[in-house]
Amino acid sequence: QVHLAESGGGLVQPGGSLRLSCATSGSSLDYYAIGWFRQAPGKEREGVAAISGSDGSTQYADSVKGRFTITRDNRIVYLQMISLKPEDTAVYYCAASDDYGIGSHYDYWGQGTQVTVSS
Fold it and tell me: pLDDT tens digit string along 52-80?
């Protein structure tokens, strides 16, 4: 059984930092790519970052390059976010795919964690 669970969201001031975690379980996920996505109210879901399950390659949306970093440590995938902006406010989801890339089809999804950037 495949399971993904996000944590680490919260309220942060503009310019602040947060680290999101995605705990994964299920043996078939060992070589899956993991992606982070976000969806703000009234907006479409956006791919933010992805990390390959085979060689650790990473990919980022232009809107977060230089500010977000995705890493993988065994069964946990992290999204380190710095210099946060109000427009980063959204529900953040992690997801798993057998096809690497933020534009790929993702088969398994977590329940999401809220990130709010506000003063």
Answer: 988 899 999 999 999 999 999 988 999 99
Record the tokens describing residue 115, joined without a space.
Answer: 């990130």
Residue 90 DSSP SS3: strand
Tokens of 78: 């992290």
Question: What are the angstrom distances between the C-alpha of 11 and each of 16, 86, 91, 109?
Answer: 10, 11, 12, 23
Query: Could you tell me if 22 and 34 are in contact, meaning their C-beta atoms sit under 8 angstroms apart?
Result: yes
- Per-residue pLDDT tens digits for 82-97: 999 999 999 999 999 9
| DSSP β-ladder status, 68-73 and 58-60 | unpaired
As beta bridge partners, residue 97 has 33
State phi, psi for 31 to the nearest 5 degrees.
Answer: -115, 15
CB of 109 closer than 8 Å to CB of 115: no
